[in-house]
Write a structure and sequence with these properties.
By secondary structure, this protein is of the alpha+beta class. It has 7 helices and 17 strands. Strand 16 and strand 17 form a beta hairpin.
């Protein structure tokens, strides 16, 4: 129920510019006053009956004078009200459902009292109506159509059913929220574990890189040292180890050192780690038939079965498919300092280490011109 913003209202009830005569209550337009009181009553109230009884008019500022009472009069108004519709109050809300309880039945009667103070002026009567007990219009709730959401009477079978459904829905939402929360917690835990594992892996890799860098620095220091036995021991340890970076550093340094002992160590390790060594062939300028032999011979390959790490002796197969004399056959060879010699049935391969980290030499067969041979040591 909305209470009017102001219960006092001034209205001009009659008009006229004639001289102002003495005011009499019987001259008041009572019907207009009744209508104005009815207008002040908000729905869902209806005005059943309005009574108006003259009462002495109060003097301005509380002072009674003959002149003031001649132009002023007052009326006590009583309005019998009846509630047109049942009203309700909101007990609780849950989503779109509003649970309500009855407040007042239709037909409830109350009496509203008011005072109309009228002043007679040149333009007619001017009346001010003041409600004396506006509280009778309050505290009765609202009609059903003014309530928010879907109104359901509290305590009814429908209300009980809806409350149970709401409780089930809330429980289901709670269960879904628990599942979602557990899923998020599991995801966060897995992400944290993955992050931790990645950090540990990165830390381990960093430590390995730091250790490798330290070993490389130590190796470079030792292989560049003045003490020859220490240098040779450093080369042997690096070439025989399982660290590719250290082995490659030692290999390149040994091949470029021009030291036959170090070169021999590097070549033995390099050959021992391979199962097949491709040999590049080139024609010679001295024999015009070497170009034809080169084209017909095909690829030459040295297959390695075993290498003696002490004396450099090796066993395997050597040959090319183009000529019967050069077909792959069992071969034996030896690495003497930086010179590699391999002998097979009817053919021989002789190579020597160069400054360009290649093994260069000749490939000879009994009935064929000699060809230039090269093996790239990488």
């Amino acid at each position: 129920m909305v209470r009017p913003a102001a219960w006092g209202i001034a209205v001009t009830l009659m008009a006229g510019l004639a001289p102002v005569p003495p005011a009499r209550a019987s001259d008041l337009p009572i019907d207009r006053i009744r209508a104005e009181v009815s207008r002040l009553v908000p729905p869902p109230w209806t005005v059943e009956e309005v009574t108006a009884d003259p009462i002495p008019a109060p003097a301005p500022d509380g002072k009674a004078t003959a002149k003031s009472t001649e132009s002023r009069t007052a009326v006590r108004i009583g309005a019998k009200l009846r509630l047109a519709k049942p009203t309700y109050a909101v007990e609780s809300r849950d989503g779109a459902v509003t649970f309500i309880r009855p407040v007042a039945e239709a037909g409830l009667e109350k009496t509203l009292t008011a005072t109309a103070l009228a002043t007679l002026g040149p333009k007619g009567w001017n009346a001010r109506i003041e409600l004396r007990n506006p509280e009778v219009l309050e505290g009765i709730g609202q009609p059903l159509e003014e309530l928010p959401g879907r109104p359901v009477l509290a305590g009814s079978a429908e209300a009980n059913r809806l409350r149970e459904q709401i409780a089930r829905d809330a429980e289901a939402r709670g269960a879904e929220e628990d599942v979602r929360r557990r899923r998020e917690e599991d995801l966060l835990a897995r992400q944290a574990a993955a992050t931790k594992a990645e950090e540990e892996r990165a830390t381990a890799e960093r430590r390995q890189e730091e250790a490798r860098a330290a070993r490389i620095a130590d190796l470079r220091t030792r292989i560049l040292g003045a003490d020859r036995p220490t240098r040779i021991a450093a080369y042997e340890a690096a070439l025989g180890g399982n660290d590719p970076a250290l082995r490659q550093i030692a290999l390149e340094a040994a091949l470029q050192s021009r030291d036959p002992v170090l070169g021999n160590l590097a070549l033995k390790d390099w050959i021992a780690r391979r199962r097949a060594v491709p040999v590049q062939l080139y024609a010679t300028k001295e024999d015009p038939h070497s170009e034809t032999v080169l084209n017909n011979l095909g690829p030459l390959t040295l297959e390695i079965d075993s290498v003696n790490p002490v004396n450099g002796a090796l066993a395997g197969r050597l040959g090319a498919p183009g000529y019967s004399i050069a077909k792959p056959s069992a071969a034996i060879g030896a690495l003497a300092q930086t010179t590699l010699t391999v002998n097979a049935y009817g053919c021989a391969l002789s190579l020597r280490l160069t400054e360009q980290k290649t093994l260069d030499g000749l490939f000879r067969c009994q009935t064929l011109p000699a060809l230039i041979a090269r093996v790239t040591v990488d």
